[in-house]
Specification:
The protein is of the alpha+beta class and 201 residues long. It folds into 2 domains: 3-54 and 147-175, no CATH class; 57-144, no CATH class. Helices cover 56% and strands 12% of the residues. It binds zinc ion (ZN). Zinc ion binds next to loops.
Length: 201
């Protein structure tokens, strides 16, 4: 009953937002109760007092991976006692290497290469982790904008249920009044009707 799906209606059918009264084409609809109302997209973001989004499992997976990557990244940069700054520094030195003439003979080059091999895994891992992490963050941002289903907060849900009860009661009342009106002599009806009294001062 508290599960509402976000939908859009045609521009011609736009209506006043429940919260801010601005015209919007976004509606929340509850399939179970049939209740629905207009509501700007804006109020559905970071507004748990109103409604909590049901993110896809892909979103939760991405969050878990991002958290994991953040941990690994932090650990990698710590072990790398040198840290990010010196990572950039080493990147600069390694970029200079190709400029050194390669005529010093094979042994020197080999030495260079082993040095590279020692350093590279750490460097690549750190950079790769960072890239992976950022790509997960991008996925999260995209998926975050797409939940189509929300759980209405308790307060909101109660308000919606009460409103429906009131509407139903009023409709029933109108129906009864109409029936009474058509069955009764107008003169009698006038006598039976309680006109509002003048408010006391
Ligand atoms: Zn609004």
């Amino acid at each position: 009953m508290d599960k509402y799906t976000k939908r859009k209606v045609a521009a011609a059918d736009a209506g006043a937002c429940l919260i801010c009264d601005r015209r919007t084409v976004v509606v929340l609809h509850c399939a179970a109760s049939g209740d629905w109302f207009f509501c700007c997209d804006l109020h559905l973001q970071d507004n748990p007092q109103f409604a909590r989004p049901n993110y896809s499992s892909a979103y939760h997976d991405a969050c878990r991976r991002a958290a994991e990557l953040a941990d690994r990244l932090a650990a990698a940069e710590k072990t790398n006692s040198t840290g990010w700054d010196s990572w950039l520094g080493r990147l600069a030195t390694s970029k200079k290497k190709p400029a050194v003439p390669a005529k010093d003979g094979a042994p020197a080059q080999d030495q260079d290469k082993t040095e590279d091999k020692d350093e590279k895994p750490a460097k690549v891992t750190s950079a790769d982790l960072r890239r992976e992490y950022e790509s997960e963050l991008a996925t999260i941002a995209t998926l975050r904008n797409k939940p189509t289903s929300y759980n209405l907060s308790g307060v909101m849900l109660t308000a919606r249920v009460e409103r429906r009860k009131r509407l139903a009661a009023r409709a029933e009342q109108l129906r009864e009044e109409e029936k009474a009106y058509s069955n009764t002599d107008p003169q009698q009806l006038l006598q039976r009707y309680h006109f509002p009294e003048l408010p006391k001062r």
